[in-house]
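go over my protein:
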Amino acid sequence: MFAPNVSRHYDGQAATLLWNLSLSQDLSLLSVDIYFNSDIIVKLLPNGGSGEIAAAFRDRFRVNWNPPGRVALVISKVTSADDKVNGTFSCVVSTLSNGNWRRRIQVEVVAPVTTPEIGGERTVREGGSLQLTCEASGKPDPNITWTRGNPGNQGNIGVKQAGKVLTIPIVSRNDSGTFTCTAHNGIGEPKSQAVYVNVTYPAKIVKFQDEYIVELQQSVTLSCEAEGNPPPTYTWFPCGFKQVCDKNTLNISRVLADANYTCRVANALGSDSKSADVYIGGNIVNITMVITSEVYEDEKYNQSLFLEKLTELLKEAFASKPGYEGVQFLDVRPGTITVDLALKFKFPTKEKDVITTLNAALKDGKLGEFSVSSIKGTRHDVATTSPTTTPTDGSSVVKETVWYREDFVKELVSVVGKH
């Protein structure tokens, strides 16, 4: 028995199965029968006539019979019932000499893939699991692959997983993005469907500077960078009436005192907060000292000697503090001596630390015979050299400006020159 011929036809379309007959002259044709498996479809007669098509096949089948050489079985609409997995079409030729010949045709019913449909939860929290299902049909059954990114895009990172189910057991925020399901069975063009996976995670501050050193009455902008999905909201406190407090930055137009500010970020999944300290200071720190052990009432007072002695004592007081470079006397007021100092440092320095160092020096006797009743930051107009905002990591560039008030220095030179 010969192997059956295989004829491929699209599902839902018409098809014609052909058998060509050739009998030798010593054979007389008795009948031609067309079968599907063991079920007869129609019986054909030698004179070109035929019986009725069997009821089970009548709706979709008809036959063209041109004896003695050609039989055409016409299927108006091929269905999966005709497929080779379900059976075989046969043409059986019978002769008067009781000879039978059978030729078989198998129909392979094919269909291009349908557009995939994707099911599954498309929003998932970080740390959870993700499972997406891609359903597509076709004949033969399609192969299904999952890729990251849209089909044809340069951002596509290639096949992530084969099979109808995409599984990511532990989802990270990096899994947010487009996943594309592609189905193909070799019939027609591949079909794809894309879905966006949204990975959510709590708000968290990822970049924050916790300390700023700023000149008195200068401005500073605090920064707070956070991640989160949904995007986090920002809240700064304390926050003044005219300040914008719901952005990732907080602008302080005039720094008048040391202060602490807190940035809080939040979304539906969680919150985070960090605090930053803003200190008055810089490369030049202006200090006012009231020295009660000295009285400056007339021109006989040796101010030059006083300033020289105080310079040496300050040098000793800051000997253990790296970066101290020197002092400039800005003003000396008569009576119980009140002196305004501009202390210069290589690095941005907090005013409070300078005051602490001077108080410690006073307590330890490093200010000699001077009795000091007050050490505080100078709060009238003084010149400084530090930048408006000076990060403590030293990354800012210090401006080259005069670090003392020339009018006071000229006055001091004039006074000293008289003694």
In short: The chain has four domains: 5-110, 117-201, 203-281, 282-377. The chain has a mean pLDDT of 85.
